[in-house]
Amino acid sequence: MSDRIVSAAVVVIGNEILSGRTADRNLPFLATRLNELGIQLREARVVPDLEDEIVRAVNETRARHDYVFTTGGIGPTHDDITGDAIAKAFAVGIDYHAEAVAILKAHYANTGAELNTARLRMARVPAGAELIDNPVSKAPGYQIGNVFVLAGVPAIMQAMFESLKHKLVGGLPVRSLAIAAYLAEGAIAKGLGELAGRHPEVDLGSYPFYRQGRFGTSIVGRSTDPDRLAAAAAELRQLMRDLGAEPLEESTNSPG
Amino acid sequence: MSDRIVSAAVVVIGNEILSGRTADRNLPFLATRLNELGIQLREARVVPDLEDEIVRAVNETRARHDYVFTTGGIGPTHDDITGDAIAKAFAVGIDYHAEAVAILKAHYANTGAELNTARLRMARVPAGAELIDNPVSKAPGYQIGNVFVLAGVPAIMQAMFESLKHKLVGGLPVRSLAIAAYLAEGAIAKGLGELAGRHPEVDLGSYPFYRQGRFGTSIVGRSTDPDRLAAAAAELRQLMRDLGAEPLEESTNSPG
C-alpha cells in the first residue's frame, strides 16, 4: 500500500455505447472495485472505434493517472482496433505474441472450432506488453506501461480484472459513509456547506431522493482519514436533528 | 436539417459516478435521443466535482463538437460547482439571473418552502446564458454558446432535454440496422471485414452474444445513406447464409 492518493482513469472504447445501443456496465464495476483497492477513479472517457480518438484518450489519461483501464475493441472483427491504437499510443510495434498464440491454439483445439486468421488476430499484442489471463474465453488482455487493456464484454472484463488485480498497488483506502434524512437538499444545504468548510479533509456529496412520497437527501462522506470522517459524521447527524429530522444510517464501507 | 455530420459530446459531472455509488443513466438517454435527432454523440467524459477538471473537459469538448451537454452539479449544495466552472470556462461572470430568481420565487411561494440562500444559488447563471425550462422541479438549466447545462437527476435532465431540443439542428440522420445470426464472431469476422472494406460509407459493428446456450453475433450497420446501408445489409444476409446460418432481423431505425 502506498501512503499517497493513487488515481486511475477508464477509457471505454465502443461506438455501441455512443449510439445508445448498449449501456456501459464496465464503468460501475471498475469504479467500485478500484475504490475497494484504494485506487481512486478520477476520470472516465467513452470514445468511438477510431484510432486517433483512442490514441488521444489513452495518451492523455496515462500521463495524468497511475493506472488506465481500457475496455472493448480486442475481439476478432475488423472494428476491433484497440491493439493497433495502443501500439501507436506507445509508439511500439504490434505482432503475434507467442504465448497468446499458444493459448488460442490450445483453446480452439479443445473446442473444435477453427483457429482462422480472424481469431488469430486476438493474439496480436503491442511489443513489451504482458498478458492478462482470460479464464472465460481465453483470448487474453494485456498490460503495457500503466495501461491495462481489457475486453468489453462485462463477464470477460470482470474476470480479467480479477486476474490482474494483484499487480495494482493501492494508496490510502478511502472510507465512505452515507447518512440520509427526510430533509430537502435546499433545507440542509447551508449547514452542510458550513460543515464541509470545517472539514476540508472530508469530501461531502449531497444527493437528493424522493421515496414513498417524501423528499430526502443522502449525504455521502469520503475520506482517507477515518477519525476525521467520524467527526464530520457526528456533526452531520447533529445538524439533521437540529433541522428536525432523524439521521438514517445508510451504509459504511471501510475498504482496505 | 444540416447536410453534414453534426457531432456532440456529453460531460457527466459527479463524484458519485466515479466512486461507483451511482450508475450513470443520462448517457444512454442522450445517446439515443441525439441520434434520433441526427446528432452523433462522438465523445463522453465523466469528471469529478473539481472546478479545473470541469473547465478542462468543457473547453476541450466544446472546441471539438457542435454541441456539448453537461449533466450534474447545478443543485443548491456546496458540491454543486458546475455554474462557476462553466463561467470560468467561458471567461464570463456569474450572477443571479432575474428570470431564474422569479421562477424560484414563484415556485417556493407555491410550495410554502423557504427560498433560502442555498436555494437561491440555483438562480446563479453565467453571463450571456439563456435559460432552459425545468418543468419537474423548476430550477432551470441553461445554454451558453454551444454548451447545454443540465441537471444530474435523470427525470429532470430528460425533461430539460425535451425543453431544449427545438434549439438543436440535426445533420444527416443516421439509419441503423441490426442483423444477428447464430455464428461465432470469429467465424464471420473474415467475410465481415471484406464486406466492411467494400462499404466504407457504412459503419459495421460486431457484437457477440450468448443466448439459450448458443453463441451468436449481432452486426449493426449505420450510415447516413439508406441505399448503401440496404446494399451492405443484403450482402451481409448472403454472407450469413453462405456460412450456414439464417439471418435474424433485429431492428431497424430510421430517425429523421
Strand content of chain A: 25-35%
pLDDT under 50 segments of chain A (min length 5)?
none
Number of domains of chain A: 2
Strand order of the largest sheet of chain A: 2-1-3-8-7-6
- Number-wise, the strands of chain A total 12
Task: Give your account of this protein's structure.
Two copies of one chain form a homodimer. Chain A has two domains: 6-167, MoaB/Mog-like domain (Molybdenum Cofactor Biosythetic Enzyme, Chain A, 3-Layer(aba) Sandwich), CATH 3.40.980.10; 175-253, ACT domain (Alpha-Beta Plaits), CATH 3.30.70.260. Chain A is α/β, with parallel strands linked by helices. Chain A is elongated. Chain A has a six-stranded mixed β-sheet, sandwiched between helices. A four-stranded antiparallel β-sheet of chain A has the order 10-11-9-12, covered by helices on one side. The first copy, chain A, contains nine helices and twelve strands. Helices cover 38% and strands 28% of the residues of chain A. The longest helix of chain A has 17 residues, at 226-242. Chain A has helices at residues 15-18, 26-36, 51-64, 82-90, 98-111, 117-120, 154-164, 185-198, 226-242, and strands at residues 6-13, 39-47, 67-71, 94-96, 124-126, 130-132, 141-144, 147-150, 175-181, 203-211, 214-223, 248-253. In chain A, helix 3 crosses helix 4 and helix 8 packs antiparallel against helix 9. In chain A, strand 10 and strand 11 form a beta hairpin. At the A-B interface, helix 1, helix 2, strand 2, helix 6 and helix 8 of A face helix 1, helix 2, strand 2, helix 6 and helix 8 of B.
